[in-house]
């Protein structure tokens, strides 16, 4: 069966419907207790350059299950409705699709970082090494 919509098409469609922040927007809020950064990259990616300070790691493949309180995989970190959850991946494509998926699940306090961790590092924003 032929592909009728490319992955880039899906990302572009998601970007039209989700909230997107620049690296500078997020750096300015690093000490904001109402913001929770979520690193959705694969665990193997974390060993290359670290991550963003105070980011919670939630692999993309488990994200919807970890967010859903009815799931046996639910993680309470996602239960604080006073927080804004800001996702990031390597380049911003996976996080755009993930943000759209969580928005489709009913989350309104969700956004992502344009350009992902690659842009974060490129702009010299702070990083930490994961244990």
Concise structural overview:
Helix content is 32%, strand content 14%.
Written as H for each helix and E for each strand, in order along the chain, the element string is HEHEHEHEHEH
Q: Radius of gyration in whole Å, from Cα?
A: 14 Å
Label the structural class: alpha/beta
**DSSP helix fraction:** 25-40%
Regions with little confidence, pLDDT below 50 for 5+ residues: none
Please give the alpha-carbon distance between the first and last residues.
Answer: 44 Å
**Widest sheet: strand ordering:** 1-5-4-2-3
Strand fraction band? 5-15%
Features:
globular, alpha/beta, 131 residues, 5 strands
Outline the structure in words:
By secondary structure, this protein is α/β, with parallel strands linked by helices. Helix 1 packs across helix 5. The longest helix is centred in the last third of the chain and has 12 residues. The mean pLDDT is 95. The protein has a five-stranded parallel β-sheet with strand order 1-5-4-2-3. The relative contact order is 0.23.
Task: Give the SSE map.
Layout: H1 7-15, E1 20-21, H2 23-27, E2 35-39, H3 43-46, E3 56-57, H4 63-67, E4 84-88, H5 93-104, E5 110-113, H6 116-122
Helix pairs in contact: 1-5
